[in-house]
Design goal:
It comes from Streptomyces coeruleofuscus. This protein is mainly alpha-helical. It is built from four helices and no strands. The radius of gyration is 21 Å and the shape is elongated. It starts with 19 loop residues before the first helix and ends in an 11-residue tail after the last helix.
Length: 140
Amino acid sequence: MIEWRPLGTGARPVPRPVATPLVWAGAFGGALVLVAVLNSVVGTGRPGLALLALSLLAAVLGLCARFTAAPGTAVLCWLFLNGFAIPPAGTLTWAGPRDTTWLACLLTATLVGTALARLAHARAAYRRLAPGRGDGPYGS
């Protein structure tokens, strides 16, 4: 007779975040490709669209990163936004309130992505370790 046994016994560990240099490499490559695609499709006159796309990229990168990677990820995305997504392309400029807002937006997106990932992992770990949890809504 065949006896079925679960393969995974015991608590599964919470996934570890990706190393910071790898996240920064992803931010560099992802921002480069994203800005190049946006510039070829819609042109350089739409910084709001580029900011939105780079914020989404920063949030996605934050899902697999440590909190310490957030400032570097935001700065790398801002460099591509400022240097290549707004005219004149290839020139870094600093317009105080605008660039401060852009940096804050990118940093917030990265931190939100990282916080959501940490909460999801903590919740999953709690559900795996909580005693007496049944299959149904009221336990079994």
